Amino acid sequence: MSDTSVNLEQAILVHVNFPQQHNSEDLTELKLLVSSAGVQALQTVTLNRSAPDSKHFVGSGKAAEIADLVEQTQANLVVFNHALTPAQTRNLERLCQARVIDRTTLILDIFAQRARTYEGKLQVELAQLEHLASRLVRGWDGLDRQKGGIGMRGPGEAQLETDRRLLRVRVKALQAKLEKLTVQREQSRRARQKAATPVISLVGYTNAGKSSLFNRMTDSEVYAADQLFATLDPTLRQLNLPMVGGVVLADTVGFIRHLPHNLVAAFKSTLQETREADLQLHIVDAADPRKTDNMQQVAAVLEEIGADQIVQLTVYNKIDLLDQAPRIEYNEYNLPIAVYVSANTGQGIDLLIKAITQLLSQTHLYLKLSLPPEQSAWRARCYEQHCVQEEYFDDEGNCHLRLSIADPVWQRWLKQSQGQLQNYVVSSTDI
Q: How confident is the model at residue 259 (pLDDT cuts 50, 70, 90)?
């Protein structure tokens, strides 16, 4: 039996401080990313520079030092906490005689490990190929270059062009498959909208505890672990709330600083759940000293994907690590804006449900309907929404219902019935 530990990648980490960058990548986060990727960090090299070096990013002297360190430790990988150009990567690999990757490649590799569903795997492969497209030249340095003129084209250029063509074909095939899945996802979304089912989307920085909170609220068993991007594929679950009825809770991929743009593009259909949600729960690790910066990063990504105008409730998780009591914070209009909970212990979950219910039913209606026998489908819809408080039938078979229903749900029903449902309203009161 072979020893799997021999195959464990061992890396030298490199982090450069640029004083002019206020939002530079965090070294602690790099170590978490490397650990999440299953790589053992042997040593960390840090340095200060005013600007990146065009050839080696870190300068020739520091690059030589990194190469010596690779030889001493027998590391087989060098990880930069920054974006490298193909030329910089090529020069560093020649010098260090080891594989060199940047932050984007590392994140893409973690996503590839985490993808479980068919759609998730397609999305990650698409992002990886789009990232690879600009770096294909690396694999053909030893072959001839195109020199121009008939008879002067070398085999290396022919091979490079072949690879580019094959890559473009594969990208188009992946895009076509994802487009079909997008249509299917859109059909499911329309079905939920037709049923007037509110959608609550969990967003937040990676490792803030979204999946743990999701499991706690829905009694699910979605994989959750203390690592970055523990879950990747989106998960939807039904949840019944008092005075609101059935809602859909959507657990989405966590965000991170400098999330690669090709990843955002590849996960466009997945992030659609976040853009079209009725309410966002912004999950924050209350025990993380960088929580303010993390919240700003999440806000930036939400703006980038066009999901920054949705009503949001901030959920400060992991209060058990701070010995804080669960509570709700309200704004000047007496609406909840933040809830302090612990997904680990269950503290404050009842307060979170209360806050969600209040936000989804800011304007609640107290209705009396008189439905004729041929409108039994609407009676069934009322029971599906869990909004029936009282019911009786008269001698003519008419169904009389007393409802407590959220105004957004009622407005959707009116639109779906083209106003016909309003004809059966006996009385209506805001509560």
A: low
User: In this structure, are residues 355 and 376 in contact, taking their beta carbons and an 8 Å threshold?
Assistant: no
Provide the annotated binding site for GTP.
204-211, 229-233, 251-254, 317-320
Name the token pair of 16. 């450069």
Answer yes or no: do 237 and 162 share one domain. no
SS3 114: helix
CB 377 within 8 A of CB 399: no
Residues contributing to the annotated binding site for Mg(2+): 211, 231
| CA of residue 71 relative to chain centroid, distance | 38
Answer yes or no: is 350 within a domain. yes
Same structural domain, 24 and 160: no
Both 350 and 373 in one domain: the answer is no
Q: Are 237 and 341 in contact (CB under 8 A)?
A: no
The tens digit of pLDDT for each residue in 144-165 reads: 444 444 444 445 556 667 777 7
Q: Cβ atoms within 10 A of the Cβ of 167, count?
A: 15
For residue 4, pLDDT over 50 is answered with no
User: Contact at 8 Å (CB) between 368 and 398?
Assistant: no
Whether 89 and 152 share a structural domain:
no
Answering whether pTM is above 0.85, one says no
Under DSSP, is residue 288 helix (H, G, I), strand (E, B) or coil?
coil
Residues 161 and 209 in one domain: no
Domain count, the chain: 4
Which CATH number belongs to the domain containing residue 288 in this structure? 3.40.50.300
Q: Which of 39 and 116 is assigned the larger pLDDT?
A: 39
On whether residue 95 sits in a domain, the answer given is yes
Residue for token digits 């209705």? 367
Looking at 156-244, which runs of residues are DSSP E strands?
A: 199-204, 235-241
Segments forming the whole domain that contains residue 381: 364-430
Please tell me the predicted confidence (pLDDT) of residue 67. 95
Q: Out of 100-104, 285-289, 363-367, 372-376, which region has the weakest mean confidence (pLDDT)? A: 363-367
What is the model's pLDDT at position 11? 92
String of DSSP letters for 175-194? HHHHHHHHHHHHHHHHHHHH
Binding-site residues, please? Answer: 204-211, 229-233, 251-254, 317-320
pLDDT digits (tens, 9 = 90+) for 295-331: 988 888 888 777 887 889 999 999 999 989 999 999 8
Positive or negative: CA dihedral 376, 382, 385, 388: negative
